[in-house]
């Protein structure tokens, strides 16, 4: 296979992996990796990374996911091999980049290089962001911020379920700010990256004071700070303390702060009250799941961008079948194209159905009681041990009852089996828990949103 074919397969693989992997791990360890070769004789697929650390992390944490995805897209007989390929940055001249990047447009190259240095991905532009009813407010706020960073809608807190375009939009804000205000310093980081840097800085030992000083300088001397998945710092006292002071320093200097999460600030259970209050002090917007018209528009745009030549009826079927999120929508588009090409056949509606089937039904059938307990516990910031324990704290009662409700209504578990699973609880306790959540759901909008988000997380992880 040539490089172009390998790149297309890897793009499809990454699309699938992004759906099931930890978002912070994906963003941190997948960039720079690619398929180096596929040996059809020895049945070996070599995945290479730019560093030994990345290679080890991917092999240890992503092997199972990658093997499953490669089996589905390429075939079960292939073995995975992981390597390291350190590349020197290519020396590219303006003439190599064609007329778009002539000497008159040198600023385009400089802007792109600066964006990468600030942690931005050049693919996440405003021009590639599809606007619809589900994200119109968030888009309008984003364009206003790009025009006048630090002056309107500060801080900006954006939340939604996974794969609905949060990262794309906030990175696009960064790009637009650099275009309109090239003198600005923008910094994009994930919450987990910030957490890791704080942990590294506060570790005792030689140079710890210098590390703390460098951390403060890095995050407080910027014009725009973008933190993706800020909920990752919840429950981490030292990290929340550092972010509190960073937030205050930037806010008092009228610097723009942009944050994302999978839920609204007041719903992040283990987030300190003082941080929740500050996150809520500016503009809050959410992104809902795209309707079928918007999903169709996204697929048409990607079809044209990548020159895939997918028939309209196939695009319609994928748009109808995949309702969960944009990330999975695009991944399924690439999967169908890749499989059709690997079989040497034209992609039509019958082949599409044979490849992807009914996505949501497939995922529903893979949901297990353990997945439900894991995702509910993760959402409420508790452990499965807490759920199964005997403590009757208010912070534990609701999650237990939500688990009971979801086990009953999602996997149709019997009351006795649910009680046995949750620490040998009495049948009547489970009945009461399920009834309680059912009743509260009919009148509590916030709980409705919480359970909808948890369901989305469960499906994504299944």
Number of helices: 21
Helix content: 55-70%
Q: What CATH architecture of the largest domain do you see?
A: 3-Layer(aba) Sandwich
**Topology-level CATH name of the largest domain:** Rossmann fold
Relative strand content: 5-15%
Q: What does the main sheet amount to?
A: 5 strands, parallel
N/C terminus separation: 32 Å
CATH class descriptor of the largest domain: Alpha Beta
Could you give the count of β-strands? 8
| Structural class determined from secondary elements | alpha/beta
What would your notes on this structure say?
- The protein is of the alpha/beta class.
- It folds into 4 domains: 3-84, 2-Layer Sandwich (GMP Synthetase, Chain A, domain 3); 106-287, Rossmann fold (3-Layer(aba) Sandwich), CATH 3.40.50; 292-364, Helicase, Ruva Protein, domain 3, CATH 1.10.8; 367-461, Chromosomal Replication Initiator Protein Dnaa, Chain: A, CATH 1.10.1750.
- 57% of the residues lie in helices and 10% in strands.
- It is built from 21 helices and 8 strands.
- It has helices at 3-20, 23-29, 52-73, 106-117, 136-147, 166-180, 191-202, 208-220, 237-252, 273-279, 292-305, 312-321, 326-342, 349-356, 359-366, 369-380, 384-388, 394-410, 415-421, 427-441, 445-461, and strands at 34-39, 44-49, 79-84, 156-160, 186-190, 224-228, 256-261, 283-287.
- The strands form 2 sheets. A 5-stranded parallel sheet has the order 5-6-7-4-8, sandwiched between helices.
- Helix 9 links the parallel strand 6 (224-228) and strand 7 (256-261).
- Helix 16 packs antiparallel against helix 18 (394-410) and helix 19 crosses helix 20.
- It is globular.
- It starts with a helix and ends with a helix.
- 36% of the residues are buried.
